[in-house]
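for the writeup, i need someone to sanity check this before i put it in the appendix. the sequnce is what the collaborator sent (i think, or maybe the updated version? ugh). structure was predicted straight from it, no edits. if anything looks off just tell me and ill rerun, i have time this weekend
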Amino acid sequence: MEFPSSNSWYSFLKEALSEDYFLKLQEKLNLAYNVNPDQIFPPRSQIYRAFELCPIEQLKVVILGQDPYPTLGHAHGLCFSVEAQVHPLPKSLKNILNERKSDLGVADLPNGDLSHWAKQGVLMLNTVLTVGQGKPDSHKNWGWEKFTAKIIGKIAEEKTNIVFILWGAKAQNMALNIDTKKHLLLKAAHPSPLAAYKGFFGCKHFSKTNDFLQLKGHQKIQW
């Protein structure tokens, strides 16, 4: 369950990875996966997939979610994204793709796999990186929140011109100290059916992100 030392993020996060709370989290995860390997999501090999698909050198955007989908076959290590064969799509993801289409005037994606976003420099990070089957928030307070907060804080401190996309109060509370003189901070309601009509629809975060990236001389994201 260790963070792979070959990953480009390893040296950037080395201090956080060696702290006691994180080592205890790894022990707890190893036990959970060893006891119920088919009931903890995402699969063990995909826990750190967000970092694998988005090398730190390519980082442009951070999208922060909550915890993985607790449904078998859905979670694959990227916030809001699902495996390509999943149908119907989770409602939050469906709302995200509807906003994408409305904002950019583009065609629908063929499925809900958003890996192509990650490969363009979008870190698709959940606040909590694992979950038990059918039990949302079941790994809350295991230590993931502290790890995620350190990642966000370190990116905000050491990088410049990063777009932080925060949907919902939980994500926004994780990133209270982002310097908006150094970065673009985009906030909206969560895309869940309960909140999407309270400010998520019409937020235009996809086009705002690309406008900012182009202004700073970076390639826009092909959403």
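DSSP finds eight helices and six strands in the chain. The CA atoms of residues 77 and 123 lie 11 Å apart.
thx in advance!!
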